[in-house]
Amino acid sequence: MLESSFSQSKALKIISLLKQRYGRSFHRNEDPFFVLIFTVLSARNRDAQTYKAATALFRRFPTMKGLAAATTAEIEKTIKFIGLFRQKAKRVKAISQQLLQKYGGKVPDSMDELLQLPGVGRKTASCVLIYAYNKPAIAVDTHVHRISNRIGLVKTKSPEQTEKALMQLLPKGKWLDINELLVKHGQQTCLPIKPRCPECPVKKYCNYYVTIFQKSL
């Protein structure tokens, strides 16, 4: 079992404070196929560029059948301005084909089945469960992994360990909020370099603020 130095009540207080600061802006119950492809495109890419790529891709190929029938070169040309576009083009085509062949054109709503899709890992699968199906999951990206450890919610070395530790620490009813809140916190306040600790809403609960930032003043 992965231990945390934080009590559940303290962790819930942090979530509450982050929600007061950032609110909720992400839409739930989005189209599952769009969420899946968007998340595949988002790897190592900024949100603005991912939205641009996803919009261009679905404008040119509006349906799953269209993407499955498209050549890899056609997909590459459409998303060539994002990182790893060749690898992502192959993955988008393969996912589309498998969804049609194995799942009748429907995106699965279970973790086990989503992980069977080409190149789909736990973070991508979790995003589909959260944002398309409103099912409890914790999508751990670089922001979630880094900030969870910086605050002290967990003490882990990999995103997979972070996911398990957060699931043990928090009740299922709070899982849906974790990804969005920590991503926003990481983008706006808890920056990788030079975090804006004085304006942080959870600083009094944060291990980094208490043990490192304050001592550096």
Describe this structure in words.
The chain is an all-alpha fold and about 220 residues long. The protein has 12 helices and no strands.
Summarize the helices and strands and which ones pair or pack:
Blueprint: H1 8-22, H2 32-42, H3 47-60, H4 64-69, H5 72-78, H6 85-103, H7 111-114, H8 122-131, H9 142-151, H10 159-169, H11 175-188, H12 207-216
Provide the CATH topology of the largest domain: Endonuclease III, domain 1
Helicity, as a percent range: 55-70%
Quaternary structure annotation: single chain
Radius of gyration, taken over Cα atoms and rounded to an integer in Å: 19 Å
H/E element order: HHHHHHHHHHHH
Cα shape: elongated
Uncertain regions spanning at least 5 consecutive residues: none
The largest sheet is: none
In total, the number of strands is 0
Arithmetic mean of pLDDT = 92
Task: Provide a brief overview of the structure.
This protein has 217 residues and is mainly alpha-helical. It is built from 12 helices and no strands.
Features:
single chain, 217 residues, mainly alpha, Endonuclease Iii, domain 2, Endonuclease III, domain 1, 2 domains, elongated
